[in-house]
Protein 1
Amino acid sequence: MRYAALVLTLVCISEVRATAPPLPAPKTGFATANGIKLHYLDWGGSGDTILFLPGFNDSAHVYDQFAPRFADQLHVIGLTRRGVGESDKPKDGYDASTRVEDIRQFLDSLRISKVSLIGHLMAGDELTLFASRYPHRVAKLVYIDAASDRTPEGWIAGLSDPTNKPGIMQRMRMEALGMPGASDIHVDKMPPPDEWAILVATHKAIFAFRQDYTKIQAPALAFYAATASQHYPSKWLPDDADASLRAKTEAWWQEKGHALMREPVEQFRREIPHGELVEFSNAPHYLFKGDTADQVAAKIREFLLR
């Protein structure tokens, strides 16, 4: 398959849409894999199986409004990784290698020999590693803002973004990296210590993983939320931002921001020459929700059924 790129600009949809009928609730189940209990959802359908993997700290229910779109022609399931939702929460095993083994054994328990994987954000690490280890078990891959650079260097460079505001995510990441000053960041509602330890351990795993697409054999499609913009993505600016902050932010994006966002795209392009890209301008990370959902669903459907 020849490499292709498609650039889309997000536009606001102002017309009032008719109220859609309520979607049927997915069947819920549990599977024992890798010594723990994992929660999964089954939205039904028949034919080839697609497995939705959520992003950081999301359960499979994050796809409740999106996954059923594909059940008319495919068997659609979603898995909640360890440490989240109704899945077991062991103290360890949050590295990418163990999480991929969770997925393999989960598929084995359902007797699914081959699957297309669709992942959001950090689930991209699981897609890449699973497809590299078990190429015979992967039909296709779909990265939803998930084929990205999550190395410490890239994140630390982002700390200089003028719109950056210290909060729970910054404290979590600083603790994961062992950076001084993490405990000085005030968080109004700190999670309980056991939950916090899992969140930090998961971020340690995210920072430790290095994307390497060179062993991927399956056709791959990657969506990016905000790389097509020639200026800084305005969604990161507060509504009441003054001219000075806007100027500083524009300068930062021109100096550092664009390069940080373009490099993962170019890596995907270099290492998966048979891959496809869809780039949005100034869209939210959750591309499968809101105004972008229809476009994303249409492209995924066309890609999977090709």
Protein 2
Amino acid sequence: MLDEALQTTLRELLETLPLVPEIYASYRPLVTDGFVYFLSGLSDERVAGIVAEQMRLPENTSVDDRLVKLLHSCPTLHKLGQVVGHDKRLAPELRQRLQSLESLAPTSDLPEIEAVLERELGAIPPGIELASAALAEGSVAVVLPFEWTRPGATARQRGVFKILKPLAEEQLREELALWPKLGEYLEERCTHYDLPVLDYRNTLDSVRSLLLNEIRLDLEQKHLAKAARFYADSPAVVVPKLFPFCTPHVTAMERVDGRKVTDPSLAPSVRQRLAETIIESLLAKPFWSEDSTALFHADPHAGNLFATDDGRLAILDWALVVELSKEQRAAVVQTVLGALTLDEPQTTRAIASFGNVLDQRKLEEAVDAAFRLVRRGTFPGFDWLTTLLDGVMTTASMQFPEELTLFRKALLSMSGVVADVSGRPSLDQVLTKTAAVQFFRELGRRPRAQLDSRDFGSHLSNEDLICTWAALFFIPSRYWIGTLRDALGVWAKAGP
């Protein structure tokens, strides 16, 4: 436990930083308490170093820059900054600074990195010439370019080594060990501040499991190979090819040249095409897949998404992925289908199938609130769905499985990036278009399919289609009954 003086200094420092946007000002004491609790659990040496680093900054350093410096000092906080860096609710200046965490200028000692590389490989393989400087640095790894001439070949291939930083694994494990207790602590502080008690424990535990994969480069290599096969028929997408000299702590892969998709120098037409490709490749293609499980990139910030020189989308860094089963994707479709036909019981059943229902009444209230939006003209697409899931989480009416929590986090990152690349295409527009294409591709197979079979990329059975057609006749009555119920609810709240 930190001594009282250092803990007081830490709290005073954190209270000056913009930890949450103005819209969530009531949560600032909770977030400050959480940061103090988290940092106080680190070794005295690390905390003293973090505080000293802040003290060494010039007096005129902005609070935004101080926050970025703090986040960079801890791998898990660094990742947090990347996740929220494209959140439109933050001030533009702060978002710009947080986005710098996506690809920082290397600060790691190069001889130390090369020593790690030699230890992992035994020796630098023949024909490899290392660059004189690292290319980029992330939360746990540094990227070192190289050129390789295969034995017997004359052409040189350009590649990069992704190498775990010397202290990254130790620091990440130290930080993640605090997360289970941190979740419990945050729930207790919610009660103290009279805030909604969210399911912090399970949420943090889900993200904790994901972040542990950041240091499992052997898993990333498997994900890269699987992604390369999945996108082999997508000419607009590039996934780096693996080179043969990989280890559990080093990934050797093809170097992809390009710029971040958010680069302002890209032409508007290029940016719009890239935004559509991001949605199609990272969300629509895996979602509408017929595969029993679909692989989703779980860390789609702009530092991992490049526009190549020939106009394609390069998807980098496959350490973090989420897999959704066909049943889960079918439940998503049933949720939206229920909203399109204003069938609240259908949507409630579909949402309930996602996880463990803790409070049926609160779940029904969350669905009712989402349906009020539909009756007021909101299209029940993915934006609406995430609003519904957020409402269910806020009321703590359900406990979601880990993969859905992580999928929601990936959607948040991707939505922000897409908006920063080009505000014109929306997730709903692209998903609706790709869903229609997928549906028409399936029409020739439907006459031979069993009535209840959902062995289609649209995840709709013939029975679903028949029931939906029949439900169309009930939409007017459901709309007016729901609208009347909404009005009665407003009058009841208004009182006499």
Protein 3
Amino acid sequence: MSAVPCIICGSTQIEPLFRTRDRHYGIAGNFSVVRCVGCGLVHMDPIPSLEELSAFYAQDYYAYQPLIRSSALISIAKKLLKAQINTRNPTFEIPGRFLDIGCGSGEYLHFMKVRGWDVRGVEPSLFGASQAQREGLDVVHGTLHDAHFPANSFDYIRSNHSFEHMPNPGEVLLEIRRILRPGGKLFLGIPNTESIPYRVFGRYWWYLGIPVHTFSYGTSNISALLRRTGFHVDRVYYQSNYSSILGSLQIYVNRNSSRRSTEGMLIRNPLLKVAANILARLCDFTRNGDAIEVIATKPSEHFADQSA
């Protein structure tokens, strides 16, 4: 039993899953993970505050690194290893105003800017935001609420593998709905707890991401949360790669040691990466992949609601 109702279904019934520790970054401590009996939402218990979460991130966190322009050789290598995943973004007739939430050092902002978009970013890490600003990108250091964007001001808002880091996802979605224009598009890239890799690996799952991942969603409950906060879910894509299987295996092998998820022979083996990518794509094909991309729209009727 939980004193706090589920953010999606309102249930106060939770079941303990396990206690686990960070497998990626060397963060100290053990953390409890539970699941809502009503909708299956997996989350930490208790949920860390924004201040506690900010202390978990080191400057070497991958999203905070300076922008590196990929060479042709690196791009070819990624394609050969089948390691590169191109996100399935919504299409637009012309560029408009774009916001990247949790933009890190601004790699995707730069990508959109050179394609004609008027770009903005929000990044809670001072180090990450500073890296983006050095590149001449308009990035607010803080949370989405700290930015105080005007209503109906963006055509496209993206949160790619940052939404699961947020301790207040319902509030964030309501703010996104407020600042997204009627008919505007939202992209959420998140892990999927309805996947085969999650069901197989559990506490050793690569994408569990404790303690920086506060909530872990499945396709069903993230769709329910989007509808509850006023969005129409257009499409769900399954976009996994080798890390979902090979990375989880490496974490399992390292489980009784202090080695991190990226340390070991499995995760570094190119042939195993190719084989794991094939398995991951099979999971995607059967809609059991552990990384999903959700495209949603702010319906036009909400414009009338806000202006009433």
